[in-house]
Design goal:
mainly alpha, membrane
């Protein structure tokens, strides 16, 4: 019954988010780099950088589903959480928009590699169904949100757990910094593609980063708090799956 209720809740939230996203006014710039915005050389470069992580992520997902098939619903939850949060665009300055990423939760639960697949699938659906991002820029968007963000989040989580053992603090910080690192990498991608005439890449990075900073920092804090709330909900309603997940993560660390 708990599983059926969880699945129904996820589907309801996904449907509601899809409705709001399709019917919201479209902004000129967003955290996902739009279709055709990057020069073709840079678009290809980020695809080349992203693909190896995607392949490794597929191998990791196959291993997880074979060894612990009972965790499939948790994988679905991680993907749904990423979809819901990253589809919510918040108006920012100069006609731009910011959004949470939702990748920190999955990175904490499964590590960064599976999120390279789940996150890129989310971005593909958003590009096709919601016109968030694009297909030519999918490599760049996936690297920033589905690769860099989860790697940072996972590293921060492991570091805080090793240093303090405070899990809730580790989850909050991991989710917040996974969000912030995504926007930092996106700003860097844009700066490399469009260096300023005066000041070059550094000046351009400061410009693009400043566009999102006012809304992205409080969004990152909010995402960290929400991720902790979701973790508390999982502990209350999916304790068996969390126990399997944590045993698996300990085994992976020892191997």
């Amino acid at each position: 019954m708990k599983r059926k209720g969880a699945i129904s809740s996820v589907l309801l939230v996904l449907g509601f988010t899809l409705y709001l996203s399709v019917n919201e006014p479209q902004t000129a710039y967003a955290m996902h780099i739009m279709e055709g915005f990057l020069p073709w050389g840079w678009a290809l470069f980020w695809w080349i950088v992203f693909v190896p992580f995607f392949v490794l992520g597929l191998r990791s997902l196959i291993k997880i589903t074979k060894e612990t098939p009972e965790l499939k619903i948790m994988l679905g939850l991680a993907g749904a959480f990423t979809f819901v949060l990253s589809a919510l665009k918040i108006p920012s300055v100069t006609g731009s928009s910011s959004h949470p990423t939702g990748t920190g939760l999955g990175a904490v639960m499964f590590g960064p590699l599976p999120m390279s697949v789940l996150g890129s699938i989310v971005l593909l659906f958003q590009a096709v169904l919601l016109a968030h991002g694009g297909l030519t820029t999918l490599g760049a968007n996936a690297f920033s949100m589905a690769v860099a963000g989860p790697i940072v989040g996972y590293a921060v989580y492991k570091g805080i757990m090793k240093g303090t053992g405070k899990q809730k603090l580790a989850i909050f910080t991991a989710a917040a910094l996974a969000d912030l690192s995504t926007y930092v990498i996106t700003s860097l991608q844009l700066a490399l593609a469009f260096p300023a005439e005066s000041g070059g890449v550094i000046a351009s990075f400061a410009k693009f980063g400043g566009i999102f900073a006012l809304t992205q920092i409080p969004l990152a804090i909010s995402e960290g708090l929400l991720t902790v709330l979701i973790w508390n909900w999982l502990q209350a309603n999916s304790s068996d799956e969390l126990s399997v997940l944590q045993r698996r993560m300990k085994g992976a660390n020892l191997s």
